[in-house]
Amino acid sequence: MATVVMHKDFQADLKLDGSLKKNAWDLLRKLSSSADSSGLNLKIPQGAIDRRVRVARVNDNFRAVLFAAGTLDEATYVLVAIKPHDLAYQYASTLKMQVNPMNGVFEVLKSADAAPVAEPPAAAPSTVESEPLRLPFQPGELIALGITERIAHRAVEVRDDDELQRICVDAPSWQGSALLDLAFGASLEDVRRTYTALGSETDRGTAHEFGRGEPDAEQLRESLRRPGSQMDFVVFSDDEHMRRILEGDFEAWRVFLHPEQRSVAYHPGWKGSFRITGGAGTGKTIVGMHRAVFLARRSDVRVLVTTFTRNLAEELKRQLAQLAEPEVLARIDVRGVDQLASEVLLRAKDRRTTLRGNDERHYWQRVLDRVDLNEADRQLLTPDFLSREYVQVILGHGVRNRDEYLKVSRPGRRVRLNRLQRARIWSAVEEFERQLSLDDKTTFGKTVVEAAEIVADQRTLDTHRYDHVVVDEAQDLSPAHWRLLRGVVPVGPDDLFICEDAHQRIYGDRVVLSRYGIETRGRSRKLTLNYRTTSEVLKFATGILGDEKFLDLDEEPDSVERYRSLLRGWFPVRRGFRNDTEEQRFIVQQIAEWRAEPGEPGEIAVLARTRTVRDRFARALRESDIPAVIVEDGDASTRRDAVQVATMNRAKGVEYRRVAVVAVDERTVPNDFVLGQSAPEEQDDVRQRERCLFYVACTRPRDQLLVTWVGTPSPFLPEARAEE
Description:
Elements: E1 3-7, H1 8-16, H2 21-33, E2 53-57, E3 62-70, E4 75-84, H3 85-92, E5 95-99, E6 106-110, H4 111-114, H5 139-145, H6 149-155, H7 161-170, H8 173-183, H9 188-195, H10 201-205, H11 217-224, E7 233-235, H12 239-247, H13 252-255, H14 259-265, E8 274-278, H15 284-296, E9 303-307, H16 310-323, H17 326-329, E10 332-336, H18 337-347, E11 353-354, H19 357-370, H20 375-380, H21 383-395, H22 402-407, H23 419-438, E12 441-442, H24 444-456, E13 468-471, H25 479-488, E14 496-500, E15 524-527, E16 529-530, H26 535-545, E17 564-565, E18 573-577, H27 580-595, E19 604-608, H28 611-623, E20 628-630, E21 643-647, E22 656-661, H29 672-676, H30 683-698, E23 701-710
Parallel strand pairs: 1-4, 8-14, 8-15, 9-10, 9-13, 11-12, 13-14, 16-17, 18-23, 19-21, 19-22, 20-21, 22-23
Antiparallel strand pairs: 1-7, 2-3, 3-4, 5-6
Helix pairs in contact: 2-12, 5-6, 7-8, 14-15, 15-16, 18-24, 19-21, 19-23, 24-25, 26-30
């Protein structure tokens, strides 16, 4: 059988026109089952600069561009693109396939990049001569890394970020990413190690020296194992692997991992827990999914993949189904962390009804109405304050009585309490739990604590015990959640793989892992390259965070420094209005224009801070005959035929092509009601969570972002850049 290799542009072409998938599948099956190309009717385009390039029929109107390499005994087919008939022949004639002679990375180059440079090109006149060079290297140093001559000579002359980014976008993926790394402070040796070094000692020990001649089959296989090669190419292992990639709807960045992502996802193993951090769109989640599959491929293991909400868990389950074969998936359980706790209690024959957020708040208010408090305490002890104190301190630290609560440390809680206040709070807690017991109800927080106690007592060895646990959106988990997760997996190698971003913490107070028996110091990695969001949207979103200070789960500072993107696109649009009617009319008009462009309606979203605003915009769209679906909390709807309308919270972990974030005024973002429910000492933390929520909303789009408001805009809105 032949080896079939796919370039990420081939997958991108299939995503643009899904009707070609069946025909592409037929072509790939023929290629993989052919001992040679004689019966495939592959055409050589006229004027081709590479004699190995071919064009193959997909259907009457489309052709595949590919390379035929190797020998009759060991044929390799590299699929590069699918294009309309005439364009496919033109495109094929400009391509050259090579193993980079400097580093062994497999590449497909366009004719301009493939041609040698006789003389360095004259530098274009610069309007920023006073700016320093973005890449303070000599062309020869970059060429020695494997950067093509033409790109190297252009890059060392650049003084402008936008021009450097244009060069990076036009370059082969690994070269563009390497140049961007160098511009952000990486050394030449860092780049060489990241993109060109083979991963295993076995590979390194048998590595070939690559010259400019045509590689043999073994050299080709080795080249495709290089980290830089795997950014653009995937080698199909069998028909099932081929089917999952072709039928899936992954973005390319979910399949073709960056070397930094791959080195973490496929690391042979750590001595304990490992933590990966990074901003929105840097690929933390997909690294976690690849890691789960890697661990589950070991025999006789059970892997738990968990996250903060059930709807996110459903999305993770969908992603895993496209990454792993059925026998591997059978070894992976995917659960929201509260869902996991409920299952533990259900197995323990506990059938109490769990209160939802607003219902729990009403219970706390009823308690406060019955407790004797002075005016100062009533200002402090709001339902929200008591709920957080209950979850973060009392449940989180396993406090069982009044004396323990009077002594317990309250890390992460801004409000200092004296003994008398603590005593009053404990009285409120006792009344709260008494009411729950009378009504045969419980809370999510209490459910998690009781589940943690059950697993700690080893009463669930048969059902809720795992060899490895992968945690997504870890920054939002409570102390009780961590006690539960620590209990379901024994301390040992690769026990917990934790994905977090302190800038997306929108629930609860900050947690420190070491307080719950989870140590990751010295075992962590930060991702800084954004694969989903354009550079323009990324700069807008990071501007929302301002000068806020953030700490990660190990109490280390977490910043957005060095966050970058290779993607270019439209600048975010910001627009203010005099009244709600004008804002709604504008949004309806904009959504109608977006729907008229290529793509599915379900890739468009309208996001709002509150349900009231969400519902108002959903009505406005429907009244204008624009199909719109309200995405509820816990809803895992994947409808693609209607515009998605959701709260900012519900958009967590989801991505869209185009996003309108609406009603971003000074009283809604941050939300006046939420601020009013918090104690003065907690205001800074609450405002930071509100800021993070706005950041989450504005990092959902891949292509376009629109932000609107009525009256005075939110103070979180970053200043407009001169070029916007």
